[in-house]
Design brief:
This protein is an alpha/beta fold and 259 residues long. The protein has seven helices and ten strands. The strands form two sheets. The protein has a seven-stranded mixed sheet, sandwiched between helices. A three-stranded mixed sheet has the order 1-6-5, covered by helices on one side. Strand 7, helix 6 (161-168) and strand 8 (175-179) form a beta-alpha-beta unit. It is globular and about 45 Å long.
Length: 259
């Protein structure tokens, strides 16, 4: 069983950068209903952009939010440390008229950052299959919580590791956007299920992303059972979620806003 978990980790991380500095750990994650349901209280909810925006907690968000507005659930990367990228994403989606729900897997109490950058290399230390499973369950909990509380229009965006979570999810949303993550292996081998055909996906990744193997060009569009995926590539040597300026336009067209 341990060998199976290690092999699964390697399969899921195949698209990641220079994975010769990847090592599987024995970290475990609480996936009890209590822990998963509490994830919505770790999230900060942004209703609008401001210079010193700190976001609202879940209770304040429910009191202040207009149920007719769309909500975008944001899934951060493996270390939640790229504050410039995180802020760019928050400002962009708020500017399109979405509420922005910034999830936080790192502070749940039984984990921490799964990666760090050392001399330009991505160093990964994680027990990736159960980590991703826990993140998928927390995403499901957010969607269910929003639907239960009257929000009918829910989108998801994931950056880096967050983009891996999106490829594993099966819950129905209005659309899903993958920033800076290649296509994960999928299919009958069981490495991951095929994505839900109920969802539409937009994948944004640079062919020269330094943190992705094979120069990052792996597209989900055109693969078997990925018929609802669309892809926008780029050529900048960057892992930035907006490394190609054209991506903003692709996102707006995908969402049907800001045109």
């Amino acid at each position: 069983m341990r060998m199976l978990v290690v092999l699964l980790s390697l399969c899921l991380l195949a698209p990641l950068a220079r994975a010769q500095d990847f090592a599987a750990t024995n970290e475990t994650y609480d996936i009890s209903d209590a822990m998963i349901n509490r994830s919505v209280t770790r999230t900060r909810y942004f209703l609008k952009d401001s210079l010193f925006a700190l976001g609202e907690d879940s209770e304040a968000f429910l009191q202040k939010a207009d149920r007719q507005k769309p909500v975008l659930i944001y899934l951060h990367g493996c270390n939640y440390g790229n504050r410039v990228a995180e802020e760019d994403l928050r400002k962009f989606y708020l500017g399109l008229g979405f509420y922005f729900a910034r999830t936080d897997f790192i502070t749940r109490g039984d984990t921490g950052p799964a990666c760090r950058v050392v001399n330009g290399e991505l160093v990964v230390r994680a027990n990736m299959p159960p980590r991703l499973r826990a993140r998928v369950l927390e995403l499901n909990a957010h969607v269910d919580w929003l639907r239960k509380n009257g929000f009918s229009t829910v989108y998801v965006a994931g950056y880096s590791e967050g983009g891996m979570v999106i490829q594993l999810m099966q819950v129905k949303v209005e659309g899903a956007i993958i920033h800076a993550m290649a296509c994960l292996p999928a299919g009958p081998s069981g490495r991951r299920p095929f994505p839900s055909k109920e969802n539409r996906y937009l994948q944004l990744v640079s062919a020269r992303d330094p943190f992705l193997q094979r120069q990052g060009a792996d597209s989900c569009e055109g693969r078997p059972d990925h018929e609802t995926f669309s892809y926008a590539g780029g050529n900048e040597p960057s892992h930035d979620p907006f490394s190609d300026p054209a991506w903003a336009g692709h996102i707006k067209r995908f969402l049907g806003v800001g045109q």
